[in-house]
């Protein structure tokens, strides 16, 4: 995935779309936008920085998982198999991007309790438990079901500024690969050696 920081306006549409797609409970943000500052007074610049799982080519999370619940698929997407995950959270500690979340149980957004406050809340609870289950680690998986069906992730589809591009980074002719070359795309903390699959295009 390629994220254009020049286009991003920190509207949080990606966050909302992700939550709607995956029914994540309170406190779980597979996609989020943080504000970062750079420069020195009086030329300080504030910039929105979208964050998600980097789906690394060399994922540290996969290396430390004792049960093999964290797996990298042939297409490069890193997933968590909730049926195997025991909730030890080794992967959360190993992840240098803070992209993993642990929910001991589902909670209602309005009441903060484990009991759904409406029929719709019950629907959200069911969807969450089907996808991630309670007491396990979860994270962004590039909407793997959508990707395998030839669709783009929910965050990409929802971005009103078209700041996100999803494509095959192993294909030099793909739009994503071309953007990285033309706009000098950079990885977040490339010094960690994890080879993130998310690239950022500079804002300036």
Descriptive keywords:
204 residues, alpha+beta, Alpha-Beta Plaits, 7 helices, 25% helix
Task: Map the helices and strands.
Layout: E1 2-4, H1 13-22, E2 32-38, E3 45-51, H2 60-64, E4 70-72, E5 78-80, H3 90-94, E6 101-103, H4 119-131, E7 136-138, H5 144-148, H6 154-158, E8 164-165, H7 175-182, E9 186-187, E10 199-201
Parallel strand pairs: 1-10
Antiparallel strand pairs: 1-8, 2-3, 4-5, 6-7, 9-10
What does this entry look like structurally?
- By secondary structure, this protein is of the alpha+beta class.
- It has one domain (2-201): Alpha-Beta Plaits (2-Layer Sandwich).
- The chain has seven helices and ten strands.
- The strands form four sheets. Strands 8-1-10-9 form a four-stranded mixed sheet. The chain has a two-stranded antiparallel ribbon with strand order 2-3.
How would you briefly describe this protein structure?
The chain has a single domain, classed as Alpha-Beta Plaits (2-Layer Sandwich). The chain is 25% helix and 18% strand.
Annotation field: number of helices: 7
Shape: globular
Low-confidence stretches: none
Mean pLDDT: 94
What are the secondary-structure elements, in order, as H or E?
Answer: EHEEHEEHEHEHHEHEE
Adjacency order of strands in the biggest sheet: 8-1-10-9
The largest pleated sheet is described as: 4 strands, mixed
User: What is CATH's topology name?
Assistant: Alpha-Beta Plaits
Distance between the termini: 19 Å
């Amino acid at each position: 995935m390629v994220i254009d920081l020049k286009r991003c306006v920190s509207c949080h549409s990606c966050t909302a779309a992700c939550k709607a797609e995956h029914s994540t409970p309170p406190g779980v943000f597979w996609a989020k936008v943080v504000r970062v500052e750079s420069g020195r007074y009086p030329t300080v610049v504030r910039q929105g920085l979208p964050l998600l799982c980097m789906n690394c080519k060399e994922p540290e999370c996969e290396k430390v998982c004792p049960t093999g619940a964290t797996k990298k698929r042939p297409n490069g997407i890193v997933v968590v198999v909730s049926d195997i995950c025991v909730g030890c959270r080794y992967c959360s500690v190993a992840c240098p991007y803070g992209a993993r979340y642990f929910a001991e149980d589902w909670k209602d957004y309005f009441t903060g309790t484990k009991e759904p406050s409406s029929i719709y809340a019950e629907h959200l609870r069911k969807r969450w438990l089907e996808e991630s289950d309670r007491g396990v680690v979860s994270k962004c998986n590039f909407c793997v079901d959508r990707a395998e069906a030839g669709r783009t992730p929910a965050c990409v589809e929802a971005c009103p500024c078209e700041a996100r591009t999803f494509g095959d980074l192993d294909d030099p002719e793909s739009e994503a690969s071309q953007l990285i070359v033309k706009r000098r795309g950079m990885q977040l903390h490339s010094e960690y050696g994890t080879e993130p699959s998310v690239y950022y295009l500079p804002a300036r």
